[in-house]
Amino acid sequence: MAQPRQWVEGPRRGLIRGVGTLMWVFASMASAWASSPLPQVGATAQEALAKAPGPGKSTADHSKFKELQGPFKNGSEVTKACLSCHTEAAKQVMNTRHWTWEYTNPDTGQKLGKKTMLNSFCIGDRSNEAFCQSCHVGYGWKDDKFDFHAESKVDCLVCHHTGGYKKPAGMAGEVPTERTELPPGSGKFIDPVDLAMVARHIGKTSTATCGSCHYNGGGGDGVKHGDLDSSLDRATPELDVHMASKASGGAGFTCATCHQADGHQIAGSRISMTAADPHGPILRGDTVHAGRNAATCQSCHGDKPHKQPSLAVGLLNNHTSKLACQSCHIPSFARGGITTKMGWDWSTAGRLSPQGKPIQVKDDKGHVIYDSKKGDFRLGENVVPDYVWFNGKVTYTTQEDKIDPTRVVKINTFHGSPEDPDARIWPVKRFEGQQPYDKQHLQLLVPHTATPDDTAFWFNFDWPKALKAGAEATGKPFSGDYGFVKTEMLWPITHMVAPAKDVVACASCHTNAAQSRLGDLPGVYLPGRDHHPWIDRLGWLAVLGAAAGVLVHALARVMNRIRDGKGH
């Protein structure tokens, strides 16, 4: 039987449904007052998490393989050794977005991916490949001549190392095998990586290996996503109940527990997301669920996750028809002690000291809030998300699009509406930027910033040169007349899941619009936030009627007892 949905119906749906809503709410509140705190996740899910296998022991000891004894001149030689046994691994990796940095959005047909997409952080990859590609799963991608078909260029170690391996920015994904000055002429040196030692101690992926790139997107720890930073490597249950260790009371998940791989294809995507998954949990190995995303909350917990038998639980489960799980179970992001960037203003970059040197300004906690290379930053910690209707479809502003500089340019647009059955209310990080555009061509520009030469902004602080070089690298025209436009970018919040005791309280949404987390978000009728005179009147009549019914029933029982007593 379908669960009641009246709590989300507006007044226009009819007074009868409104009365039903209020009666259901009052009954649920009565049940909740008479019982313990909010119900926990169902016992079935808890038992499954408790029985989840820990890291097993490999059947192969790679330290004994003669192929891995080295020495190795570079990372590609290690890959060749790996492929002598794992013959198909490179081919599998080369069919993934981790390798191509390209993706065609199935909903819009847009050609996307890190190689061509724009953002409000470092803005764009092209012309900056040698710097940005330190997070590529390959070696040597420094320009548009990179050979995407060379299997030896696949980097096996970046995902499977267990320590002692780092790909420094500026080396196009290569690793130093001797002491190296980086950047050249800077007087700063980095130590070599012992590739043979790393290769002999490889293992499964871990939060640290995934996080070495995904935590540091946008130029630093926690900068981009807000719900992904290095605090998850040492998560407490209060920070993330899934990723905290079992010893500390968490589930002991790694990234791969949810983002399962099949032939190196990783479940989950922020470009084409699964906003709604109204099904029961996936039984691992069951082909009935082929095609579903294994990285959704519902793939483990189902779409009716609250199990304790009570009216309050029924009401909570009804919320899943309009609310993403994350909206209640992630009360805030960037709450692991690491700040996230909420705003980035490139227009102020280039300010130098009286001696002509780049400067940094820090706040009273030591966080950089201005950098000559990048401009002003606005930081956030323990941030309450914004909330939007989202159906999983996202469109992006690219360099092909004309913009209106008199309005805020939306780098990405989350689609969805209250009437859309696939839409849910999702928590998001709303990031505000200010970045360069061409005033004549009305297109966003990608500056050349990071690779040392006489056109790189970080080394000459010359916007015209940097923007011209970036336009040439991206194949776009540059008029020489540039300015800075306000931009906005949304990032879905889906990590840092809090324990049940710390979920968003009912009153955080069911209150007046000025205080409600959902503000004036349309399309949902929230008792406590929304009012309609007739519904209010009929609701109070329903309450009085229920109270009168209870009194009449109680009086009847008393009279019956008196009568029965006289009869005996």
TrEMBL record:
InterPro entries: Multihaem_cyt_sf, Multiheme_Cytochr_ET, Octahem_Cyt_c. The chain crosses the membrane at residues 15-34, 538-556. The keyword Transmembrane helix applies. The keyword Signal applies. Keywords: Membrane, Signal, Transmembrane, Transmembrane helix. This is Tetrathionate reductase family octaheme c-type cytochrome. It comes from Hydrogenophaga bisanensis.
